[in-house]
Write the structure tokens for this entry.
Amino acid sequence: MTDATTPVPRGRILVVDDQCNMRATTALLLRAEGYTVSESATGEEALGVLAQGRVDLLLTDLKMEPMDGLTLLKRALEVAPRLQVIMMTAFGSIDSAVEAMRLGAYDYVTKPFKEGELRYRVERALDRAKLQAAVANFATEFNQRHGLSALVGRSQAMRDLTTRLLRVAQSDATVLIQGESGTGKELVARALHAHSRRSGQPFVPVNCAAISETLLESELFGHAKGAFTGAVKTRRGLFEEADNGTLFIDEVTETSPTFQSKLLRTLQDGEVRRVGESTALRVDVRIAAATNRDIELEVKEKRFRQDLYYRLNVVMLRVPPLRERLEDVPALAEHFLERANARSPRPRRLSALAVEHLMTYSFPGNVRELENLVEQAAALAEADELLPEDFPLRPQGRVLPAATTPEAAGLPPTDAVRATGTEATGPTLASVVEDAERRAIIQALERHGVDLARVADELGVSSTTLWRKMKRLNLRPPAGARE
């Protein structure tokens, strides 16, 4: 039983100062106020504490060696974005303290400070932390209620997307979702459905690129018994399955002009006609369509019907690529690592250096690539803390600062040409060809899914050659793939 005179912990504070006496005195004062206080002598040590457990307030000196307070501030907010930070600074460093507040610090206090002043600023910072926690809990409940929990990100681009999504979800307007492969277009469509009046009804997805053209019409519209060879019984199509709900038509630009014409008629009339039947059936379906192509260019080049484009593009939702919102990488990485830890007996944690490493990358594979990188690191890392070397990044995706060299950006010498004296070394011709083949196959698989015949046709090789190349390149065929 806790004694009534024992102070109840009021918040968790980390005090960082390379001067032992100042650090100890400050910590002693705060403990006397009932706070739970940890101490660190260096910025690196402080980052380790932040990575291991919850801290409500970071109270750090500005002038420290080897890592100063501003650097610690930036790295600490990457590890814990909602962390409150108060900078301790000498009177002559006020400009630096103001800069710290611009970078995300809550407040600053000048040394030597009075005990009352410190107590007041700490109380204000912790009150703000409690308010933010309450807002975050409300936001979590809101996201779960409205199906937005999977749309991770605090960037302006994601906030704009979420705001627009919530507005259009309340109507029955048809939505066209445009974004590169791997950006999460289906997650957006699911969130749209979850926040609509149809949320209690089915959400039915179909990937047009994963179904052969001959089967796509039957898949969407259904067929009568005997309509074609193999049609041994009458089958409802996905339009009927989605009645009163939402039908998500992914990669709609992969369809043929003939199919586009039939889809247009269905959208105009609100009726479907099963293959082999003459009777039309009424359906009440909200349509969300998606594409990773420039659909306006597809229309201009006569590969996609203009009238269908206008029918689908009532409201456009653009999902930004990850390279346009790199500030979301820390939150996304933590989100994916949390999911990986839930499936693993050995939980991992992200180091601040690993997060910095990931943010130097442009992610050509977008969010899906980041998810794969995190899952791979969680499965293969030797230590519990994930380090930069646990995340091998493709050279062509690195973000190089201006006027720098590949070596300065940390590129391995086998991935970028470098000068060694008067001799230059670089990738072999065979490795360049192999990388090009791998990228081409992966991109074709993303477009055509399990239909390897279409993949092979696009790449100009036989199905047997495609299978052989995938085996040599260690590319696993999609589940259900057929030669």
About this structure: The chain has 18 helices and 18 strands. Residues 155 and 327 are 6 Å apart (CA to CA). The chain has a mean pLDDT of 83. The two ends are 69 Å apart (CA to CA).
